[in-house]
């Protein structure tokens, strides 16, 4: 029987079967999918009323890296088209299973995406091209040594891989194989990226191996991800009273280290040229997206180059040095890392600060 919590709902009160924690406030830094998803689960599983949740977003639009905006008169900007799979995106599709579609009444966003992909299937007929000619990409071109190296990287712990680059753990010939060309163009890898990130992607997407030459496993959203995901989730949150504090750049946090970990006591943010501060209560929660893959990026046009933005203007709290010891592991020796995936955040609380406090299926772990 379907779980009642996963049906699209329109009510705002008592719609989920759990005790309401009306005394707790939640502050989320960053308006990307990580914060949007966290807010939705705080309401659904954590029993925190929407009106007690505030999301601080530096820009004037929600969605972070999942952007999509513009007009026919001026231009459209979409940084990228996201690929999903049914197997690896269980958390995202769980979220979208209780968010109503804005365009298909009575359906969830998950239903809408699944129905779209049942009609429009990915089926590449020219996955690799050489000298203008399609080449047969059905064979990976791996040697036995390459295969062993792939198994080794999967079996090696992240601690052992440490700050190694991908090029440190494969022979140079590996980077000329069909497998590498398909893998690196599907997931945007470079040989100098972190071996740990490659290991994570191999584990997450190993089921794509037999179909990577056609991309048959790839799922798309009907519209760009801002319209297909960010807008319906934000609408659901707004309907439940979540506060979106736009144009609000969090400039610092007072973090206290105690016996039970670290907790935030104060949040500073700048909005409309004015500095504000929030005293965080002892039962309150603070969630921080402490880095963004699109931070410090800027847009050019057909007539002007993009403005050079330096790290000084990167507002992410990782860049500000706030969360260096958090659950995200910084590996400066490898240089620029690949992006982290959604819902990988630092979680702070006055009493506890363990990354496992937010359990996808078990709700919030209170102690
Ligand atoms: C071109 C491109 C292609 C991609 N392709 C895929 C794909 O195929 N599949 C896939 O799964 N993923 C893909 N991704 C990655 C995916 O889009 C991101 O991992 C995801 O959107 C990150 O979400 P987030 O909430 O963690 O961070 P972000 O979306 O980066 O959100 C962070 C937000 O925090 C805000 N912020 C930063 N600092 C502060 C501050 N101090 N105060 C207030 N606000 C602040 C930023 O303005 C931003 O809105 C792609 C990304 C890009 C750019």
Number of strands: 14
Give the low-confidence spans: 1-13, 323-345, 348-367
Task: Catalogue the ligands.
Answer: flavin-adenine dinucleotide
> How is the largest sheet built, in terms of strand order?
7-2-1-11-12
Please tell me about this protein's structure.
This protein is α/β, with parallel strands linked by helices and 367 residues long. The protein folds into two domains: 24-86 and 224-349, FAD/NAD(P)-binding domain (3-Layer(bba) Sandwich), CATH 3.50.50; 129-211, no CATH class. Helix content is 23%, strand content 17%. The protein contains eight helices and 14 strands. It has helices at 33-44, 90-97, 109-119, 144-155, 158-161, 178-187, 195-205, 225-239, and strands spanning 26-29, 53-57, 69-70, 76-77, 128-130, 133-135, 243-246, 248-258, 261-271, 274-279, 285-288, 346-349, 358-359, 363-364. The strands form five sheets. It has a five-stranded mixed sheet, with helices on one face. A three-stranded antiparallel sheet has the order 8-9-10, with no helix packed on it. It has a two-stranded antiparallel sheet with strand order 3-4. β9 (261-271) and β10 form a beta hairpin. α1 (33-44) packs parallel to α8. The longest helix is centred in the middle third of the chain and has 15 residues, at 225-239. The chain is globular. The chain starts with 25 loop residues before the first strand and ends with a strand. Mean pLDDT is 83; it is low at 1-13, 323-345 and 348-367. Flavin-adenine dinucleotide binds next to α1, β2 and β8. Flavin-adenine dinucleotide (FAD) binds at residues 29-34, 56-59, 64-66, 79-80, 82-83, 249-250, 289, 292-294, 315-317, 339, 341-342.
């Amino acid at each position: 029987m379907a779980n009642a919590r996963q049906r699209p709902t329109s009510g705002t009160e008592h719609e989920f079967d759990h005790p309401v924690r009306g005394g707790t406030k939640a502050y989320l830094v960053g308006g990307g999918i990580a914060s949007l998803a966290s807010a939705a689960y705080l309401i659904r599983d954590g029993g925190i009323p929407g009106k007690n949740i505030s999301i601080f977003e530096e820009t004037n639009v929600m969605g972070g890296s999942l952007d999509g905006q513009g007009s026919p008169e001026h231009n459209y900007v979409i940084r990228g088209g996201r690929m999903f799979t049914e197997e690896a995106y269980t958390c995202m599709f769980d979220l979208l299973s209780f968010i109503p579609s804005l365009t298909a009444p009575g359906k969830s966003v998950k239903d809408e995406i699944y129905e779209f992909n049942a009609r429009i299937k990915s089926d590449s007929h020219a996955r690799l091209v050489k000298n203008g000619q399609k080449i047969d990409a059905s064979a990976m071109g791996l040697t036995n040594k390459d295969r062993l190296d792939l198994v080794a990287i999967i079996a090696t712990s992240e601690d052992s891989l440490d700050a190694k680059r991908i090029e440190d753990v494969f022979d140079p010939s590996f980077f000329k194989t069909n497998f590498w060309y398909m893998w690196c163009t599907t997931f945007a890898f470079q040989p100098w990226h972190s071996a740990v990130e490659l290991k994570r992607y191999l584990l997450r997407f190993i089921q794509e191996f037999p179909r990577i030459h056609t991309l048959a496993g790839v799922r798309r959203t009907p519209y760009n991800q801002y319209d297909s995901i960010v807008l319906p989730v934000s609408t659901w949150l707004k309907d439940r009273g979540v506060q979106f504090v736009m144009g609000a750049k969090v400039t610092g946090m007072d973090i206290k280290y105690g016996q039970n970990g670290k907790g935030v006591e104060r949040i500073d943010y700048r909005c409309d040229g004015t500095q504000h501060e929030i005293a965080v209560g002892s039962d309150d929660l603070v969630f921080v997206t402490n880095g963004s893959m699109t931070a410090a990026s800027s847009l050019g046009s057909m007539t002007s180059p993009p403005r050079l933005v330096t790290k000084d203007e990167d507002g992410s709290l990782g860049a500000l040095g706030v969360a260096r010891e958090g659950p995200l592991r910084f590996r400066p020796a490898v240089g620029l890392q690949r992006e982290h995936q959604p819902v990988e955040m630092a979680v702070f609380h006055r009493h506890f600060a363990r990354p496992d406090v937010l359990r996808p299926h078990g709700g919030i772990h209170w102690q």
